[in-house]
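Bug report (template v2)

What were you trying to do?
Predict the complex of my protein with EPU.

What happened?
Run completed; filing so the output is reviewed.

Input:
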Amino acid sequence: MKISQNISLKNYNTFGINVTAKRFISIDSVYELQQLLKVEKDIFLISGGSNMLLTKDIENLVVHINIKGISIDKENNNDVYLTVNAGENWHEFVLWCVENNYGGIENLSLIPGNVGTCPIQNIGAYGIEVKDTITKVEAIEIKTGKLVQFSNQECDFGYRNSIFKNDKKGKYIICSVSFHLTKSNHNLNSSYGAIETELASNKITNPTLKDISDAVIAIRKSKLPDPKEIGNSGSFFKNPVISRTQFLKLQKKHPNIPSYIVSSTETKVPAGWLIEQAGFKGKRFGEYGVHEKQALVLVNYGKATGKEIYELAKKIQDTIFKKFEIPLEIEVNIIQ
Ligand code: EPU
């Protein structure tokens, strides 16, 4: 185990923010992590760095979770149960599943980040949430160094939410995630508008896992910036859920407002639409701005600071509240 000094974190966060870690260590096994925790408790975890906005240098020890490996726990003709270590890249894992004809996460293709962080915000896209395939999360309790297991139910998953963002925030390090995927009779989810259109334009009527994954990749590439080219953290805000009454009032003024019904009393509206209506879509302020094709995504064109992007986010929140009386909740972790 080697601790390095003054390491730039630019390549460790998908926003590409150039802050410095005073001390930095990369960890590639659970054993190493447990040994480290015996002597270091004041740590800052970084995995795929895909859901954070760093606004300052990090004083505590930065621990990069790089534990790799995939194992098949059991399988039969219809199902496969896998355990995947936290440091595996999410998208590479999805592609590997598609190649092996393991179904369930193909709609989650091309989401940046690592497997270990997928349960924290319960990643979701195109009609699927990862919670529907997770059977168990294994994590180390930082205080005791003990390895503990959380069943799917114990993770208390919600829309972009889990116990790891609430009660257990900052208390555990996720080491592996176990999944239940299908080997036959896949429960394909191709009904999301954009997927249907993409499949139809390729004249695909009976899609395979690969067809769906390819369609999702094409849609995401057309709307969302590649973090390797333009720094970003995907959706910066959550889609707000408002009361049906407030929605109906809004719809009177804006008949074209897109929406998803959550319950008989609640409606979800796309934050991207609200931000676009407020005139921010595609706006560039020097080194940072709002993506031109998806207003929900804030971007770093290269040299932005986390503080600048956070200030922009607050300005957007203020404007949306004044215009629509809707509070926008930030989805990305702001490190300040
Ligand atoms: N829209 C606009 N303007 C925009 C963006 C969107 O008017 O700039 C409208 C679209 O026309 C559409 C609606 O808003 O009618 C929804 O847009 P989209 O299908 O792109 O999805 P989203 O609600 O903006 C959510 C997730 C994304 C996920 C997509 C697809 C959240 C916070 N975001 O975005 O997740 O990829 O659905 O399922 O729920 C992420 O979390 O990083 C992420 C990219």
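What did the reviewer find?
Helices lie at 30-39, 90-99, 193-201, 209-223, 244-253, 271-277, 306-324. The mean pLDDT is 96.
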